[in-house]
């Protein structure tokens, strides 16, 4: 019997290891396939756009033989599948070409501007989560009341109002009229030469260097665009929190908790919200990814020197290398955060591990 039990235990262990190995292999194949599809879509969209990369480099007044030589150097005379193969090899090595606008490698430009986008999206997500989750909980608890209606209207406006219109209105009110925030940009010109960034994340750098005047100036610049993004994040997070909480509050364990005499506050915040927090992780992660990729208009309105503004300026100047490189980076980050949120969901919810 002992030998039989030992063999059964070994077989179960081998089966679990096999399933785990297959799950890891499937995850890696999913990542590779998704990234390959992202590169393919980005490449072919770049080829469909009616912009000649050779003319963008040499200008439309260049002689025909110069344009033709540049086309040969770029490989534009090759079939599309060969061009894609070259693009794929270069992209996998981190080479997205040289920006026509800055004359720097695209990856170097992205490393310079992307921290600003991450900083802005992080502030927006923090604001959206800190305010959106309590509002969603309150709306679910007070379902059908005036409070619930107000929260739902706030979310509806966040979904409906164009961000560029709301951004311009916020600038007119809080900057031009009330002078509560600093003018568009990331830092005052006074500190551009006295402040030396190290990591590219200005708020972190200023705090580490204990330059409190610079930190305050950075706060006055980021608070308005960060709050604007936070509002749109709040609209999504509060709506989803309300939905999750309504589902949890209708479960039998809530009825049992009330029958045991637990306080309503404990039931809501320590039982219902705890179970609703598992899918909320995915919601907040996707909201963060959405702010990273969707802050183009916000960065343009507030002259925020991030990846969104970089792509906008590159597109206006027909700098397709920069546009495609920025698009691939944003898409990769979105896919990465999506996969990370899925892993966190499986880690926090044991019921999904066996699926």
TrEMBL record:
<dbReference type="InterPro" id="IPR000515">
    <property type="entry name" value="MetI-like"/>
</dbReference>
<protein>
    <submittedName>
        <fullName>Putative D,D-dipeptide transport system permease protein ddpB</fullName>
    </submittedName>
</protein>
<dbReference type="GO" id="GO:0071916">
    <property type="term" value="F:dipeptide transmembrane transporter activity"/>
</dbReference>
<dbReference type="InterPro" id="IPR045621">
    <property type="entry name" value="BPD_transp_1_N"/>
</dbReference>
<feature type="transmembrane region" description="Helical">
    <location>
        <begin position="153"/>
        <end position="176"/>
    </location>
</feature>
<feature type="transmembrane region" description="Helical">
    <location>
        <begin position="21"/>
        <end position="45"/>
    </location>
</feature>
<keyword id="KW-1003">Cell membrane</keyword>
<comment type="similarity">
    <text>Belongs to the binding-protein-dependent transport system permease family.</text>
</comment>
<feature type="domain" description="ABC transmembrane type-1">
    <location>
        <begin position="114"/>
        <end position="345"/>
    </location>
</feature>
<keyword id="KW-0472">Membrane</keyword>
<keyword id="KW-1133">Transmembrane helix</keyword>
<keyword id="KW-0813">Transport</keyword>
<feature type="transmembrane region" description="Helical">
    <location>
        <begin position="276"/>
        <end position="302"/>
    </location>
</feature>
<dbReference type="GO" id="GO:0005886">
    <property type="term" value="C:plasma membrane"/>
</dbReference>
<keyword id="KW-0812">Transmembrane</keyword>
<feature type="transmembrane region" description="Helical">
    <location>
        <begin position="218"/>
        <end position="237"/>
    </location>
</feature>
<dbReference type="Pfam" id="PF00528">
    <property type="entry name" value="BPD_transp_1"/>
</dbReference>
<feature type="transmembrane region" description="Helical">
    <location>
        <begin position="120"/>
        <end position="141"/>
    </location>
</feature>
<dbReference type="Pfam" id="PF19300">
    <property type="entry name" value="BPD_transp_1_N"/>
</dbReference>
<feature type="transmembrane region" description="Helical">
    <location>
        <begin position="322"/>
        <end position="345"/>
    </location>
</feature>
<dbReference type="InterPro" id="IPR035906">
    <property type="entry name" value="MetI-like_sf"/>
</dbReference>
């Amino acid at each position: 019997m002992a030998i039989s039990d030992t063999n059964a235990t070994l077989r179960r262990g081998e089966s679990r290891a096999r399933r785990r190995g297959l799950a890891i292999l499937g995850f890696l194949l999913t990542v590779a396939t998704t990234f390959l599809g992202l590169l393919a879509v980005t490449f072919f969209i770049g080829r469909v756009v009616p912009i000649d990369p050779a003319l963008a480099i040499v200008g439309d007044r260049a002689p025909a033989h110069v344009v033709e030589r540049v086309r040969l150097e770029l490989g534009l005379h090759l079939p599309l599948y060969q061009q894609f193969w070259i693009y794929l090899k270069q992209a996998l090595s981190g080479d997205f070409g040289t920006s026509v606008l800055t004359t720097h490698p695209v990856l170097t430009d992205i490393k310079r501007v992307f921290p600003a986008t991450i900083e802005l999206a992080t502030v927006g997500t923090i604001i959206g989560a800190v305010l959106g989750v309590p509002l969603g909980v309150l709306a679910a608890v007070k379902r059908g009341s005036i409070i619930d209606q107000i929260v739902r209207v706030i979310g509806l406006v966040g979904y409906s109002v164009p961000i560029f219109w709301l951004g311009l209105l916020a600038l007119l009110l809080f900057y031009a009229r009330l002078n509560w925030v600093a003018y568009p940009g990331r830092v005052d010109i006074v500190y551009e030469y006295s402040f030396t960034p190290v990591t590219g994340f200005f708020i972190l750098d200023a705090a580490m260097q204990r330059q409190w005047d610079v930190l305050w100036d950075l706060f006055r610049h980021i608070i308005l665009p960060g709050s604007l993004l936070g509002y749109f994040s709040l609209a999504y997070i509060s709506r989803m929190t309300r939905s999750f909480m309504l589902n949890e509050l209708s479960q039998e364990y809530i009825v049992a908790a009330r029958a045991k005499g637990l306080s309503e506050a404990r039931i809501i915040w320590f039982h219902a919200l705890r179970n609703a927090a598992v899918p909320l992780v995915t919601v907040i992660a996707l909201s963060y990814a959405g702010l990273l990729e969707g802050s183009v208009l916000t960065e343009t309105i507030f002259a925020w020197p991030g990846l969104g503004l970089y792509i906008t300026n590159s597109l206006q100047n027909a700098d397709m290398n920069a546009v495609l490189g920025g698009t691939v980076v944003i898409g990769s980050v979105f896919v990465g955060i999506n996969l990370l949120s899925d892993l966190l969901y499986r880690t926090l919810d044991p019921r999904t591990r066996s699926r």
